[in-house]
Design goal:
about 290 residues, eight-stranded antiparallel β-barrel, 17 strands, about 5% helix, three-stranded antiparallel beta sheet, mainly beta
């Protein structure tokens, strides 16, 4: 295979600039074959570091290939086909089995739900608060990752916990009942990949339907809608390019809601705040 004459070759600085331009796409690595460059491969922080050195000893540029792709990169760079400068041919991209970091995905979550006690107002007068017990949360989402760091999703989640007491003026009355919330949220997720690990944070806004079912006095069996917001923080671990499993924390705020009890008296429930610890299964759809 004919090679360029030394006088026609780009300078080492120009070759370095071209390589850095090619490396702007982190999902690929490039083998420089048109320029008389010598690759040197060494171990570096869980992957490999490639030093590309001009044959005349001038200039160098670096390329990192991490994780599971290190072996594939090393095989290309130091195999018999690219063992010396004399074997280098035309510059080309080499596509790796890179993980899918963009595209549509679906997720499911389930976990432990911890609602706060919430103030009650009956017939326009502050009356006390409803004591809530811990429960569970389940739900799912459909989303799209725009790149390796930013994604957006639509989420539906259901949470429930028992109402075990109503408290008025320092007196507590036991009751049988439960409170549930059905939330529909739009979330924005921001994360960073570190090998197979991806820590992330998120925030969402939407609406919630809060239902109260209690047999206290005349009974309260009603529901109402309110605005809602939430904050998320978690970490995922990728088992394959399309499947990950992780855990996360959720803080959720639901605005005040209004009800009517069995005597047709108005009942207002103040803002509901809750915490959740959840497991999350995420599956990326084929592009």
């Amino acid at each position: 295979m004919a090679k360029l004459d030394p006088g026609d070759r780009d300078t080492a600085a120009t070759a370095q600039l071209r390589m850095m331009t090619w490396l702007a796409d982190p999902l690929r690595f490039v083998v420089l074959q048109e320029y008389n460059l010598l690759p040197v491969v060494m171990s570096h922080k869980g992957g490999i570091l490639m030093l590309v050195r001009a044959a005349d000893g001038t200039g160098s540029c670096f390329m990192k290939v991490f994780g599971r792709f290190a072996a594939a990169a090393a095989a290309v760079l130091v195999s018999g086909g690219v063992s010396s400068a004399a074997d280098m041919m035309a510059a080309e991209y080499v596509e790796t089995a890179a993980p899918a970091l963009t595209g549509f995905y679906g997720s499911m979550h389930a976990g432990y739900y911890m609602p706060s006690d919430t103030d009650l107002t009956i017939i326009g007068q502050p009356s006390g608060y409803a004591g809530a017990e811990d429960g569970y949360r389940v739900g799912g989402s459909l989303g799209y990752d725009f790149n390796a760091n930013i994604g957006a999703e639509v989420e539906v989640s259901y949470a429930t916990g028992d109402i075990d007491s109503l408290n008025f003026n320092g007196l507590s009355f036991g009751t049988n009942g439960d409170g549930t919330s059905l939330t529909m949220m739009g979330n924005v997720i921001v994360g960073q990949h570190y090998g197979a690990w991806r820590p992330y944070v998120g925030a969402g806004v939407g609406a919630a339907r809060v239902s109260i079912d209690s047999d206290f006095l005349s009974g309260l069996h009603d529901d109402d809608w309110a605005a809602a917001g939430q904050l998320l923080a978690g970490v995922d671990y990728s088992f394959t390019d399309t499947v990950s499993l992780g855990g996360r924390y959720r803080f959720q705020y639901i605005g005040s809601t209004d009800y009517t009890d069995g005597d047709e008296d108005p009942v207002e429930l103040d803002a509901l705040k809750s915490h959740s610890i959840e497991a999350v299964l995420k599956i990326r759809f084929a592009n």
